[in-house]
Design goal:
CATH class of the largest domain: Alpha Beta
Oligomer: single chain
Low-confidence stretches: 128-140, 146-163, 171-184
Number of helices: 5
Helix content: 25-40%
Strand order of the largest sheet: 1-2-5
Distance between the termini: 25 Å
Largest sheet: 3 strands, parallel
CATH topology of the largest domain: Transcription Regulator spoIIAA
């Protein structure tokens, strides 16, 4: 088993990109860093300084680089005997108009192309939300079917002023679980 030892956390944002990291990897290696722990890299809200406000888990955040750059820089530490831990957060999504999944789901409900990524029991008045067993069932089913770890996020709340003002027909209380999608 790999021992991450001395770990250095990288916080990607528009002012610290993949190119910036690539320039300092040799220096980190000289310092004795054994593992790079990278902040989220998926497309996030414009100007995000942390990446935990994702808007598209199928895209790399263009403010920090490209998929090709990520592939290149993620192999550089390996060539130096260093590890790479990726903070993988598809369960963090911005509840905002920039997020096409949330917008489509709020507008289309069960007919949304993204309905499969949300547990919606009770959202549409069909039955009350079931929280405890939903966590267990989704986790177990996902592990068995995909052979992968699955991360879940419970969003409990009510529509924001933005949804009420711009999409009143989609405004209803929210009880959702977000299920991960495959990492590119």
């Amino acid at each position: 088993m790999y021992n991450p030892g001395a770990t250095y956390r990288i916080q990607f944002h528009k002012d610290f990109t993949f190119d910036d990291l690539e320039k300092i990897i040799p220096y980190l290696h000289q310092l004795g860093i054994r593992t790079i722990y990278a902040s989220p890299v998926f497309a996030a809200m414009p100007g995000s300084t942390h990446g935990y406000d994702g808007i598209d888990p199928n895209q790399i955040n263009p403010e920090i680089g490209t998929p090709e750059q990520l592939r290149r820089i993620s192999t550089q530490p390996k060539s130096l005997g260093m590890g790479w831990i990726q903070d993988f957060v598809p369960n963090h999504m911005a509840y905002a108009p920039d997020n096409p999944w949330i917008c489509d789901f709020m507008e289309q409900g069960k007919m949304s192309a993204y309905d499969q990524f949300f547990v919606t029991r009770g959202l549409f008045g069909d039955e009350p939300p079931q929280i405890e067993w939903t966590y267990i069932n989704i986790f177990w089913r996902s592990i068995c079917q995909a052979g992968l770890a699955t991360f879940l996020c419970l969003l409990i709340g009510f529509p924001t002023a933005w949804f009420i003002a711009t999409r009143p027909e989609a405004s209803r209380p929210i009880w959702l679980f977000l299920i991960t999608i495959p990492y590119w």
